[in-house]
Write a structure and sequence with these properties.
The protein has 377 residues and is mainly alpha-helical. It has 11 helices and 5 strands. The chain folds into 3 domains: 11-72 and 90-103, no CATH class; 116-224; 230-340. Residues 13-110 form the Polycystin domain.
C-alpha cells in the first residue's frame, strides 16, 4: 500500500484492496475478464467545472497508464418519486491492443427491499407468515428425521425438501443483510459524497437468485402429491424402467458434446466469438439442437471443417441419440410393467383421502365413547 506514481503522497496513488473499496469481483461484459475489485480510486465532485479540472489533473499526471486494464465509474441514482435506487457501474476496458471497450452494469432495487421502514404492513405480514409456515414444516421434518434415523435420507423427496429448506434459510439470511448494511451506512446519501451500497445491492441480487431456486423446488415438490394419480404413476414407472437403458446413451451424448466442444474451440475459437471457450462452445452446440445454429459463421470461418463439424454434430445428436431415446421410451411404455399400475383416477384418489379421514374420525369418536364409559364405571 505504499504510494506510487508521479505525485507520491496523494491518496489517489495508493493502491486499495477490495475490502477497503467495498467491491467484489467484477466481470467485464466485453472481454469476459475478471477484475478483483481492488485498485486506485478517487471521488469526483458534482460540479462540472471542478470535475473537468480534476479529470485534466489526472490525465496530465498519467493516472491512467499502459498498465491500466480497466477504469470503473460508479455512481448512485435515487428517484424519490418511485422509491427506486440504482447503482450504475460504467466500465471502460483497455485491451493491450489499444482502444477502449465500454459497457455498463445497472442494479436497481425498490427501497422496500433494502430499508425496513419502506416495507408495507401487508408485505411484512406475508413474509412473517411464510417464515412461520416454513419453520413449522422444518420442525416437522426434523422430528420425522429424528424418529426414522438414516432411513430418512433414502427417500429422494425428503432430500428435495431438505435442499429446499436449506435454500430458504440462505435466502432469508440474504434478505436481512441489506437492512443491516443500509442502517450502518445511512440513507439517503449526502448530495456531495459517494456512498457505496454495492454490498447491499449484491445481497438483493443474490436473494433473487436463491429465491428463484426456492420457487422452482417448491413447485417441483407438487409432484410428490400428484404422483398418486394414474397418469403420474405411468410417467414415473416409464422413466424408472427406461432409466438404466437411457443412462449409457446419456454418457455417450455427454462425451460427444465434450468432444465436439473441444473441436469447435480449437478450430473456431479465434474466429467465432460464440466458440471462444470450451464451456461457451458447449452452450452454442446446445443452441444448435434448438435450431439457433451459426452455420453461415462456421462456413465463413472454415469452408472444410465448418460444414464437416456441423453435419457431424447434427447427425450424431438428432439421428442417433434422439432416436435411441425415443425407442427406449416406447419400449418402456409398451412393457408389461405398466399393467401393474392400479387404475386410480382423481375421483378415486379424493375418495380414498375422504375414507381415511372418515375412518380416523370414527376411531376417535369410538375412543372417546370408551373413555367416557370407563369414567362412568
Amino acid at each position: 500500500s505504499a504510494p506510487v506514481g508521479e505525485l507520491p503522497g496523494l491518496p489517489i496513488w495508493r493502491w486499495r484492496t477490495a475490502s477497503e473499496l467495498d467491491e467484489g469481483w467484477i466481470v467485464g461484459k466485453a472481454s469476459g475478464a475478471y477484475y478483483a475489485g481492488s485498485g486506485f480510486n478517487f471521488s469526483m465532485p458534482t460540479e462540472r467545472v471542478a470535475a473537468e479540472e480534476m479529470l485534466r489533473f489526472h490525465r496530465d499526471n498519467n493516472w491512467i497508464d499502459l498498465q491500466t486494464r480497466a477504469v470503473f465509474v460508479d455512481f448512485v441514482s435515487y428517484n424519490p418519486n418511485v422509491r427506486l435506487l440504482t447503482l450504475a457501474k460504467v466500465i471502460f476496458e483497455l485491451p493491450p491492443t489499444g482502444g477502449a471497450i465500454p459497457s455498463i452494469t445497472l442494479r436497481t432495487s425498490p427501497l422496500r427491499m433494502i430499508l425496513p421502514s419502506e416495507s408495507s404492513t401487508a408485505m411484512l405480514a406475508a413474509e412473517i407468515t411464510l417464515i412461520v409456515l416454513t419453520a413449522s414444516y422444518m420442525i416437522i421434518d426434523l422430528h420425522t428425521a429424528y424418529r426414522r434415523g438414516l432411513t430418512f435420507l433414502t427417500d429422494p423427496w425428503r432430500l428435495l425438501d431438505a435442499t429446499n429448506y436449506l435454500a430458504y434459510i440462505v435466502a432469508f439470511s440474504l434478505r436481512l443483510q441489506p437492512f443491516y448494511i443500509m442502517s450502518a451506512r445511512g440513507f439517503p446519501p449526502p448530495p456531495d459524497a459517494f456512498v457505496n451500497y454495492e454490498s447491499a445491492m449484491w445481497a438483493v441480487v443474490q436473494w433473487k437468485n436463491v429465491i428463484a431456486l426456492v420457487a422452482l423446488l417448491s413447485w417441483i415438490r407438487l409432484l410428490k402429491g400428484i404422483r398418486l394419480l394414474r397418469f403420474m404413476q405411468i410417467v414415473t414407472t416409464t422413466l424408472g424402467r427406461a432409466f438404466l437403458q437411457v443412462l449409457p446413451f446419456c454418457l455417450v451424448f455427454v462425451l460427444l458434446l465434450w468432444a465436439f466442444a473441444i473441436a469447435h474451440r480449437l478450430a473456431f475459437g479465434d474466429l467465432v466469438y460464440s466458440f471462444r471457450s470450451v464451456l461457451m462452445s458447449m452452450f452454442t452446440l446446445q443452441r444448435v439442437l434448438l435450431g439457433a445454429d451459426d452455420f453461415a459463421v462456421l462456413w465463413d470461418a472454415n469452408r472444410l471443417l465448418g460444414p464437416l463439424f456441423y453435419l457431424g454434430w447434427t447427425l450424431a445428436s438428432y439421428l442417433i441419440l434422439a432416436n435411441i431415446f425415443a425407442a427406449v421410451l416406447v419400449e418402456a411404455m409398451g412393457s408389461d410393467a405398466l399393467k401393474s399400475v392400479p387404475r386410480v383416477g382423481a375421483i378415486d384418489t379424493a375418495k380414498g383421502y375422504y375414507d381415511r379421514w372418515a375412518d380416523r374420525r370414527a376411531s376417535a369418536a369410538e375412543e372417546a365413547r370408551l373413555a367416557e364409559q370407563r369414567r362412568l364405571e
